[in-house]
Design goal:
homodimer, about 130 residues, globular
Chain lengths: ~130, ~130
């Protein structure tokens, strides 16, 4: 088997493909943040769920993220995930947002020992201007 | 002014330039990890301090890291820092390790409200093979 975080990310990707946003929210910490696009951040589940709703609308409901290679750097109750992420959107061929990304995710272990996503930044270091 | 984490990173960079490893360790959580180079991770202060000692020896004691642009993504007591990092090493001109990097650092706030570095990965998403 692999790292439990790999399983969680796979399940979250499946929830996005199924447009099951209630299930998707189970993977986030209450105070998590999502980088919606460079310069735009959704804060907390109350902003992340509607943000995903708008992202799915933008992609006409056809969005299938998947992760190829992943590197997990774990320090106690904190983990940094580096991922080669693919975002397949069959109905949308002219988006300015890249289909292939080097993503950075931060996970935190809660008191029950469960990993939750605290920072979801699929744009990785591309947020830097250089 | 700016984010307190920016000040901490500046002070840590100064401690490296001064080869003051005792002071440098103040910026790390006890269970922090440092990516020494791709594939090599130092775990905990007891490994990070000797790892920095070897890094400084490798660079013949002349290592001056600095950060240009930084993006800080903060979620409660966790923060992901993306940084355009420069590593000046005037006495070492033939190193295979890049002088210019897109780094990823994870900081965690402790019970006293102080930010500490939990994950120090100056190689960013370059750790992915793609």
């Amino acid at each position: 088997m692999g790292h439990p975080i790999k399983t969680l990310i796979k399940q979250a990707d499946e929830a996005i493909a199924l447009q099951d946003l209630k299930k998707l929210m189970d993977f986030y910490a209450d105070d998590a943040i999502l980088v919606v696009k460079p310069g735009v951040v959704a804060r907390g589940k109350e902003q992340i769920e509607p943000a995903f709703h708008r992202i799915l609308e933008y992609y006409r409901g056809e969005m299938r993220p998947s992760q190829k290679e992943m590197v997990i750097l774990e320090a106690g109750d904190t983990a940094l995930v580096l991922a080669h992420t693919m975002v397949e959107t069959p109905l949308m061929t002219d988006s300015p947002y890249p289909a292939e990304r080097k993503a950075t995710y931060v996970f935190r272990k809660n008191k029950d020992g469960d990993w939750l996503c605290a920072i979801d930044n699929s744009y990785g270091t591309e947020l830097l201007l250089l």
